[in-house]
Backbone:
């Protein structure tokens, strides 16, 4: 029996990615409906989905995909305009396909089946609208898709912009194909979707006359002529087959290729055992001349490229990666313990080993961390759909712009960032962007703009969500705060204070509860979620001009570079990305928790960690001051001593640290003790707040 | 020895001393017993909260149970131990260490020997008690580990950051 779940998993992951691709293509097409290359890509995605869906038994999904493919074929040929209505329908169809792919293909509920029928009728309606429709097509769309094999199709050149080429395809089934539910014959059939495909089976021992067992081809050799490049074909099948199962070589333009038949007979004759010999044999058969070195070279390099392309990335379960990062973390701790021990040993050889290990552990840490880094693009993409649907729901016109999608971030962080970003985007759409008529009345373009961006800056990632809407009504916030008893009625707090009120749990200025937001569970959740990721959230707003929410995050949650400092008998870690400078101060008499010191000609607040954290012991007369912060928000922290740099593997203390102010986690020291990691952002906020603007005066 | 046919199911408990009292806890919630090592203080915590210890790379919070129950402080003697408990938390287990003046060992009692806690007069406040058993002619207080330290208490132990408004 076929191991069904494994097949489903294999297909499921890839189908999901295909659907994500498809959705983003639809959304891009919405902006540029005339982009023929995009249309061609949509078409190809649908085609792949249909073919592989059918191959894995998802006939219902294949049926829907087939109908979509038909419509897009007409769009491709310029016979059907790509209206936003059609795209809306396509998006619906994509969602429906997702439902189908998540369900059991063998048991599609009647309701779902009816939903597909309804959807396909609506898709078919588009074809009826066209004058030059041939009736066969339109009916075909609503007809059940039966064979499960993609039918013969030629890709016409105008859409893909590719010249007709000749490709050599070699399919070698692996032993486990039967277990994976892969049928080589169906696979071969699926190649016919790209163009005329001639194929011959190759048997072991070169022929059928082998007696005693049922002959089964060891591989198939085929020649495909069409307007699809070898790279595209490889990509289309890369998810399914390894490079040793499928090799595709370009034989060149069709016009200068030897007749296909001759090639194939060469294959059957056993004259084609390796790619180089293939070309040589082909050339020799067609024109008596020997193929020149250039051709051989190009085939050879192409084969090399193919091997490289298919091995350049692998899928790994993220739990495995997490475990690896965990081990690397332990290794880093042990390594720094070793380094510390060796420091006092007068043995050069041992020190050398420790240094080598230190370098290696550092590189291992970096590469293990980089494995978990993924671009934010796919997250951004899913928001595009959200904004589109939300705009329609709210009756607003919104243009969504995303930039910096290639910014890489720890996968765990990205996952945890999704909800906060979702909240911020919803806020921007619901509270920020005004309805079209209001926008027109205030002299703004009808269409609002919501931007989402990400960039790297030092060891941090900066993410912003901005809108060009009405901005936060600060007066309304003030009145609401007064009503809630958060501030006395007569005070006039500054903008920053008012905006900070938005983070108070239960605070909302929305007049009523809408379906999207306004339940008073918004900004406080976002704020604490970002804080839990050791990040910070800042808001800027200009009345009538819009609001920008700025998120700063550390690159990763697991390991940071830190500076270890001592206060009394306690040891603390300051994240190195925040450290600006190291000063000193002499103390005469008692100190206050927050004082001022001079730094680069300015007065900045200086916090006595000893007093703030209640460290027991006597106040020393000489203290080191670590200056931490960014962009004019520096704050000094007075400590007893600076031990040095340390890689800190961050360990939470369960729920404990969540409410411990100014501590973001713990780490195990080289000597086996525990250091607390300071939450510098919180500390800065506290220090700046308690000194106030007068310190800068 | 009890007759296995008539006895009710046995409870295994770890018995340890807090001051003059012998208390016991269900063995199923006890992860291990350690010798006290270095404890890292965490600022802004109530004073029964002693800090965190390094348990094979994990930071585990430790409390002075005796102090928390209002029975004075644990004296640091060679007999002092840290009992590591698995506390049921929000969907995950949270490790928590408690100091004990000494650990007596594992005792076995039948379920029906577990009597309801006295409504008053016990050394341990009644809400923290699961019951009381008599072992070797002495009453042993059985602590309810689930109520000993609730998750709310753990997360609420720390003072939260002073908000913007508190500072004016």
Residues:
């Amino acid at each position: 029996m076929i191991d069904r779940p494994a097949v489903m998993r294999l297909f499921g992951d890839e189908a999901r990615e295909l659907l994500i691709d498809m959705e983003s293509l639809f959304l891009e097409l919405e902006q540029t409906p005339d982009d023929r290359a995009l249309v061609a890509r949509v078409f190809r995605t649908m085609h792949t989905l249909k073919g592989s869906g059918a191959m894995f038994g998802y006939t219902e999904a294949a049926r829907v995909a087939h109908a979509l493919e038909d419509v897009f074929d007409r769009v491709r040929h310029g016979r059907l305009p790509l209206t936003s209505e059609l795209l809306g329908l396509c998006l619906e169809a994509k969602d429906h396909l997702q439902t189908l792919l998540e369900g059991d293909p063998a048991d599609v509920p009647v309701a779902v089946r009816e939903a597909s029928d309804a959807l396909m009728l609506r898709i078919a309606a588009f074809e009826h609208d066209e004058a030059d429709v041939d009736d066969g097509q339109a009916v075909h769309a609503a007809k059940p898709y039966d064979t499960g094999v993609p039918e013969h199709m030629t890709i016409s050149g105008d859409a893909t912009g590719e010249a007709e080429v000749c490709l050599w395809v070699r399919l070698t089934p692996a032993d486990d194909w039967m277990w994976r539910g892969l049928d080589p014959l169906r696979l071969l059939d699926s190649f016919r979707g790209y163009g005329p495909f001639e194929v011959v089976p190759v048997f072991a021992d070169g022929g059928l006359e082998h007696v005693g067992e049922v002959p089964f081809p060891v591989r198939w050799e085929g020649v495909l002529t069409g307007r699809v490049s070898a790279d595209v074909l490889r990509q289309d099948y890369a998810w399914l087959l390894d490079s040793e199962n499928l090799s595709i070589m370009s034989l060149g333009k069709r016009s200068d290729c030897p007749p296909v038949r001759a090639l194939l007979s060469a294959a059957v004759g056993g004259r084609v055992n390796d790619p180089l010999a293939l070309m040589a044999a082909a050339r020799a058969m067609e024109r008596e001349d020997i193929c020149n070195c250039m051709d051989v070279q190009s085939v050879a390099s192409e084969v090399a490229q193919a091997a490289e392309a298919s091995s350049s990335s692998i899928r790994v379960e993220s739990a495995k990666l997490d475990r690896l990062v965990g081990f690397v973390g332990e290794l880093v701790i042990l390594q720094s313990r070793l380094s510390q021990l060796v420091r006092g040993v007068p043995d050069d050889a041992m020190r050398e080993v420790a240094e080598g290990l230190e370098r290696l552990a550092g590189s291992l840490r970096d590469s293990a961390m980089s494995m978990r880094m993924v671009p934010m693009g796919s997250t951004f993409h899913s928001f595009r759909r959200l904004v589109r649907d939300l705009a329609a729901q709210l009756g607003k016109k919104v243009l969504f712009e995303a930039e910096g999608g290639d910014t890489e971030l720890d996968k765990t962080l990205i996952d945890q960032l999704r909800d906060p970003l979702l909240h911020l985007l919803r806020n921007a759409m619901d509270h920020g962007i005004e309805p079209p008529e209001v926008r027109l009345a205030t002299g703004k373009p009808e269409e609002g703009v919501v931007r989402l961006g990400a960039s790297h800056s030092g060891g941090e990632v900066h993410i912003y969500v901005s809108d060009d809407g009405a901005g936060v009504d600060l007066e309304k916030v003030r009145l609401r705060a007064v009503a809630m008893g958060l501030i006395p009625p007569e005070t006039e707090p500054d903008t920053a204070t008012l905006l900070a009120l938005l983070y108070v749990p239960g605070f909302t200025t929305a007049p009523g509860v809408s379906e999207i937001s306004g339940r008073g569970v918004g900004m406080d959740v976002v704020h604490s979620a970002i804080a839990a990721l050791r990040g910070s959230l800042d808001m800027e707003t200009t009345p009538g001009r819009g609001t920008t929410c700025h998120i700063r995050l550390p690159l990763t949650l697991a390991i940071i570079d830190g500076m270890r400092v001592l206060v009394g008998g306690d040891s603390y870690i300051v994240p190195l990305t925040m450290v600006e400078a190291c000063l000193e101060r002499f103390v005469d008499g008692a100190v206050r928790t927050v004082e001022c010191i001079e730094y680069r000609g300015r007065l900045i607040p200086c916090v006595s960690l000893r007093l703030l954290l209640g460290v027991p012991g006597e106040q020393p007369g000489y203290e080191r001051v670590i200056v931490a912060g960014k962009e004019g928000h520096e704050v000094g922290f007075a400590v007893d001593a600076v031990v040095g740099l340390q890689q800190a593997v961050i360990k939470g203390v369960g729920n404990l640290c969540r409410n411990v102010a100014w501590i973001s986690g713990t780490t195990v020291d080289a000597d086996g003790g525990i250091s607390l990691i300071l939450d510098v952002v919180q500390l800065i906020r506290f220090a700046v707040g308690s000194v106030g603007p007068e310190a800068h005066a | 020895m009890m007759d296995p046919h008539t006895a009710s199911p046995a409870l295994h408990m770890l018995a340890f001393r807090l001051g003059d009292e012998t208390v016991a806890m269900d063995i199923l919630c006890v992860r291990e017993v350690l010798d006290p090592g270095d404890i890292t203080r965490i600022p802004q915590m109530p004073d029964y909260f002693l800090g965190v210890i390094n348990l094979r790379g994990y930071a585990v919070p430790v409390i002075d149970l005796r102090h928390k129950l209002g029975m004075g402080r644990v004296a640091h003697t060679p007999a002092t131990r840290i009992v590591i408990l698995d506390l049921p938390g929000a969907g995950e287990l949270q490790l928590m260490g408690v100091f004990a003046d000494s650990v007596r060992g594992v005792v076995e009692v039948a379920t029906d020997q577990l009597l309801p806690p006295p409504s008053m007069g016990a050394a341990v406040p009644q809400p923290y008690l699961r019951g009381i058993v008599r072992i070797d002619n002495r009453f042993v207080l059985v602590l309810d580990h689930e109520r000993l330290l609730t998750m709310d208490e753990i997360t609420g132990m720390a003072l939260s950051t002073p908000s913007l408004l508190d500072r004016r």
Remarks:
- The mean pLDDT of chain B is 76.
- Strands of chain B lie at 10-18, 21-26, 30-34, 49-55, 58-63, 81-88, 93-100, 102-110, 129-135, 138-143.
- Chain B is about 10% helix and 40% strand.
- The interface with chain A takes residues 38, 40-45, 52-54, 57-61, 89-90, 92, 94-95, 151, 154-165, 167 of chain B (CB under 8 Å).
